[in-house]
Specification:
This protein is of the alpha/beta class. Helix content is 51%, strand content 11%. The chain contains 12 helices and 8 strands. It has a 6-stranded parallel β-sheet with strand order 5-4-3-6-7-8, sandwiched between helices. Strand 1, helix 2 and strand 2 form a beta-alpha-beta unit. Helix 2 packs across helix 9.
Length: 255
């Protein structure tokens, strides 16, 4: 642990470094506001919307033109504590009548192997034969086919995580559940996307049986395209480069 004096000095040095940054481009705009509010600095980087991946280039590779073709449930994205798997397993254990022959697909192929093994033991105990953990990596085509069978997605993270998987499943037309505390939930709700909170699911288990309409799926896809399409990503990259060049010229003039 750092002493109070070292913590103070570290904090001051960190703030000084941040104040020298011109632009801040987090994955989601909601994260920018969270951090800015938390730090409460007089000088804070300007927000700039930019992402390093596009729908066509990375995120939907292998998924373009596909739709949900099954009724399984996807839970989490990795073997990490932040997935809060056990809470979901507890919920599903109390909702067995709603999952019956549905597979509960849980990606555990990357992350903490010890944690993955524990989740397998707990998942089998609570969910039984419905539990289908993904322990080994698989060919992309097989993974695409597997997650395309999931009509519902439960992402129980509190921090920003699994945005890529959420985008893919929204595009395919799945019903997605995210914790209200997550900046991912805040972001998509601010865009009027058709998603649900984990809290809503806990109050109404029948949400595990609903489906989005074609209009709702198309609205979700439009939101995804407006933020992550290759055209928009290229445009944002060009704007960021121009902004950096302009800022550089301004600083040269001052110096």
């Amino acid at each position: 642990f750092l002493s109070p004096i070292k913590r103070f000095l570290y904090s001051q040095n960190k703030n000084a470094a941040i104040s020298k940054i011109s632009f801040f481009s987090p994955v989601l705009e909601s994260e920018y506001h969270l951090i800015k509010e938390k730090l409460k600095m007089n000088i804070f980087p300007e927000y700039f919307s930019w992402n390093y991946g596009s729908l066509e280039g990375v995120l939907l590779k292998g998924f373009i033109g596909r739709e949900i073709n099954g009724n399984n449930i996807l839970v989490g994205n990795s073997a990490s504590l932040t997935n809060n798997h056990v809470e979901v397993f507890d919920f599903l254990e109390g909702s067995l009548s709603l999952i019956e022959s549905r597979k509960i697909i849980v990606p555990l192929s990357y992350g903490d192997k010890g944690y993955a093994n524990k989740m397998v033991d707990i998942g089998v105990k609570k969910i039984g034969n419905n539990f289908h953990p993904l322990i080994e990596f698989m060919p992309m085509s097989s993974y695409v086919e597997l997650v395309s069978s999931c009509s519902h997605v439960i992402m129980n993270h509190i921090r920003q995580q699994s945005v890529g998987n959420i985008i893919i499943m929204m595009y395919l037309g799945a019903v997605v559940f995210i914790r209200k505390e997550s900046p991912v939930y805040t972001f998509f709700k601010s865009k009027n996307a058709y998603i649900y909170s984990i809290q809503e699911l806990e109050k109404d288990k029948s949400l595990l049986t609903i489906k989005l309409t074609k209009e709702q799926i198309e609205d979700n896809r439009s939101i995804l395209h407006s933020y992550w399409s290759e055209e928009i990503t290229n445009e944002k990259t060009a704007n960021l480069i121009k902004a950096c060049q302009k800022r550089r010229q301004l600083l040269r003039g001052v110096l």
